[in-house]
Amino acid sequence: MKILICISQVPDTSTKIVLKDNNTLVNSQGVTFVINPYDEWYALVRALELKESGIANEIHLVTVGKADTEPIIRKALALGGDQAVRIDADSNDPYLTAFYIAEYAKSIGYDLILCGKESIDYNNGIVGAMVAALLDIDYIGFAAGIQIENNVAVVKREIEGGEETDICNLPLVISCQKGVAEARIPNMRGIMAARTRPLNVIAPSVQSPVTAILSYELPPAKAGVKIIKPENMDELVNLLHTEAKVI
Amino acid sequence: MSVIVLVEHDGGVIKKKNLEAVQYAAGIAQKTGETATAVVLGTIGAAEMENLGQYGAQKVLHVDDARLNDLHAPAYARALLAAVQKEGSKLIVTLNDINGRAVAPRVAVQLNAGVVAGALIYPDLENGFVIKKSVFSGKAFANVNITSDVKVIMLMPNTFPLNKVDGKAVVEKLAVNFEEKVFNVKVKEVNKVTGEIALADAGLVVSGGRGMKGPENWGLIEDLAKELGAATACSRPVADAHWRPHHEHVGQTGGAIRPDLYIAIGISGAIQHLAGVNGSKTIVVINNDPEAPFFKAANYGVVGNAMDILPSLTAAVKKFHQHK
Ligand SMILES: Cc1cc2nc3c(=O)[nH]c(=O)nc-3n(C[C@H](O)[C@H](O)[C@H](O)COP(=O)(O)OP(=O)(O)OC[C@H]3O[C@@H](n4cnc5c(N)ncnc54)[C@H](O)[C@@H]3O)c2cc1C
Ligand SMILES: Nc1ncnc2c1ncn2[C@@H]1O[C@H](COP(=O)(O)O)[C@@H](O)[C@H]1O
């Protein structure tokens, strides 16, 4: 069984967002980039477990990004994975990203494609479902547990107000979140081994974007906190009613 | 032409957030000189569908097929496509929620449509078709222009207050032929937390962190939540320590919520926690450390010991409800 993991490069969660060029771009200077946490901690680690338990034979990684994303892919390879592909494009259009991934996936043929529940930069949560639609295969989102047996996936997933267990034949795209696996830290052996694992760069297929980010805005500064004394809880309730109008 | 809006229901009952989607679709339709048509799937009564007229839908297309009572994204997409064809639509609205994230991308791909996931405003039609959405987990917003001819918008729930109007939607049946493969995903088991207010939809949320010291003190949080009619949530270390169930964990790695009121008790306000709650309209922070970073993101703050403050806050809410 061959598994493909979609890896996205994102700014570290503690990054302060600074805009530039008349608010049309996010300044990447001084920003530390990491693997999108859902892709690393859950999708990738679960795939590695499936390989360790003999269910999967090959783990491939794919990222859509320019050369500056290579350290991230190397880090992912240090955790495990047999090879990586970088599709050489800069895309913040989810359709375009999905299209590139799907075209590449088609050329190899994967039994299982794992992605994260959302990227913490654009917070779309839709690239995985788009890849599935482009490949005309099924998709299960918000997975919190994945078992594979005899080409059938048993997936525990989040639903509104609870959990559901779904069953589906492979091939399948699954978006992963907490519960799917436990985060790992790359070890020295992995880091050394990653150096020799292939990282192929391919050109994106030709396709036009369907969205464009025109500008960014930063949230307006909070007016400042109003401090209420612990003995004045009636006042707090009153403010929530008359001023904030939330109760 | 008509704006198509997917309207889901929970066992025949349409929830508030789905009404928000109808109102939003109708609002856009009004701007563009169109009408709003709701697509309702599965088993549901006529009255519930007619009521969508009160939120601006002129018409409901009902695909009355019991197989659609469970989420089958390819089948839902197929039904929406049939509605789009029937109405000659160029715009499809869904919610940006768990099901919306499975269905809308599939519809978009099949229609070559650009999508905005998590719309926070009505589209600005003067400069193209521009929609604001949250990015970087609430640390910024992006203004996204959809450039394709057909467009899909996934509306962020709890963004626009509901305004009821007089109206009754006309309900029509829509027959759709489904290929067997759209039902490939089979539901084996459903575990719903009953009796609790679902966190994702809650207007009011009371949340506890490590400052609550241990699970034995959660009665204080539950009492306040009950008095307010609020859902309960927690920070990640609290869920990791099994003080609270995992589905209550909010933040970067847990759920993202946007309630009207978020009360954070004994939570420091780490950036990864804020990422899940900074869309809340009003934030109250209760913490014994006046330097806790959460106060910077709060509208109201109380500095002191949660164990003392919680009972008096609960009593104050009780008093307020009695005198209202
Ligand atoms: C990549 C990444 C992802 C993460 N994702 C998440 C996430 O999704 N959600 C999340 O919550 N965290 C997440 N975290 C962890 C986050 O960084 C913080 O460690 C966590 O939010 C802290 O939880 P806390 O505020 O409950 O605990 P603490 O930081 O220990 O804070 C406890 C607070 O309680 C106060 N306190 C103590 N006693 C009392 C009392 N008697 N009365 C009132 N106040 C009191 C203290 O002053 C303190 O401010 C993530 C971290 C990383 C690195
Ligand atoms: N540029 C990218 N390259 C590879 N995978 C991506 C990329 N962007 C998003 N993904 C995958 O799609 C998931 C959802 O992303 P998004 O729809 O952007 O929130 C991520 O968790 C990744 O697994």
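The two ends of chain B are 46 Å apart (CA to CA).
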